Give the backbone structure.
Amino acid sequence: DGGITQSPKYLFRKEGQNVTLSCEQNLNHDAMYWYRQDPGQGLRLIYYSQIVNDFQKGDIAEGYSVSREKKESFPLTVTSAQKNPTAFYLCASSIVGVGSNQPQHFGDGTRLSIL
Amino acid sequence: DAKTTQPNSMESNEEEPVHLPCNHSTISGTDYIHWYRQLPSQGPEYVIHGLTSNVNNRMASLAIAEDRKSSTLILHRATLRDAAVYYCILRIGNQGGKLIFGQGTELSVKP
């Protein structure tokens, strides 16, 4: 079945350590997104990419980095500069349509915690 | 950023219709209205979207006010599986299509 796969489901980070969250999609979507969700809150956009080898910062990009070397993959690195990384991370993808009428498809998320 | 306002929580009885309201008074002409729902520890699921006209799909109906400053998501017969947080979102066309999530409405369904 087509969809978005995020791994791992749970991840623990030590102080000063970088960690990378994986996001893979087989929907042939051009656009991919990373969001962060804190308890009881809505999602906030970290980074997004509309085409391979190009990406833009979202609202809370500080302390994060991404790459988009392949259409199917959009990994997110949480760097040691991100002082409060404990959160639920969600990856999404969509068709790049004219206007803003294309729905986003989400993975099941990665829950990151600090040891 | 365009914002939406929703009630924090609503309650419904199983097999009854549910009307989830959303206010978006700052909406501009090219902004689409999207609805997503999220179950605990899962990613959001797309429900429906619209621009000006009312919309129906297999999951729900979307009623959009004539001035587009408010909309209502209608679940025709609530089931226990419809219990979730429902987000009303304005999709901004000139901002990479990003979704701006608010707090959402937590819907509980009583048997």
